[in-house]
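Could someone model iron/sulfur cluster with this protein?
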Amino acid sequence: MQVSEGAHETTRELERIRAEARAHLEWLRDAGVGEIEGGRAVSTSTATSTSTSTSTATATATATAASTAAVTNGEKGCGSPALLAVRTELGDCARCKLGPGRTKLVFGVGNPSAELMFVGEGPGADEDQQGEPFVGKAGQLLTKMIEAMGYRREEVYIANVVKCRPPGNRDPEPDEIAACEPFLKAQIAAVRPKVVVALGRFAVQTLLRDPTPITKQRGRWRDYEGVKLMPTFHPAYLLRNPPEKARAWQDLQLVMKELGKVPPVR
Ligand code: SF4
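Reply:
Sure, complex below.
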């Protein structure tokens, strides 16, 4: 059976992660830490023996490997070693208060080296159930928008500012954004798109740290962490306000021009 270079890369990345975990645990053991509670190192002035700490380290390393394998096998949006490393770092995340209420963590989906990336606000009910961003009605509209631009959905990368569903679809709160945004930044750095399209008021204002209304920000190029960013309306807003689709299409045409895509005759 032939094994692709991508599979080799993934295997090498898994080996690297395991080696790092092993080295980290050995260092903790040597530093006198005998066990890990909830991800927090506990001092072992009370640890009783080297064998105890060694078995704890082994168990934790096994859990890390199991978690990594689960990510490799089942998670969406991890199609490169760099993205897999971000997902592995995220783990079974409980860094903010959205974690306990989720059904599935919604990491991202799409081409791991896409030239075009879309960023929304956070998962809704459908996304929470399926573990994939933009799969409900708004997602279906986003897919149409992507296809109208001359791409297939799987050719772009899609993610959200926060990866767990806010209860009742409320806006994510500042502490939740602060906990989760570093992972979005890492995803963008991993994918290295030419253009990010920020969807809706919340994503735009959060990414740009600019409270200007979306109606005034849309359609104007901005910079996010060295990547060109185009603000436009969220597909859910467009479903509620169909006449605004024309302005959103103007924004997307600017993106197409930037990426060398020819707008279809409409
Ligand atoms: S929203 Fe982000 S930071 Fe908060 S629990 Fe989910 S993955 Fe972790």
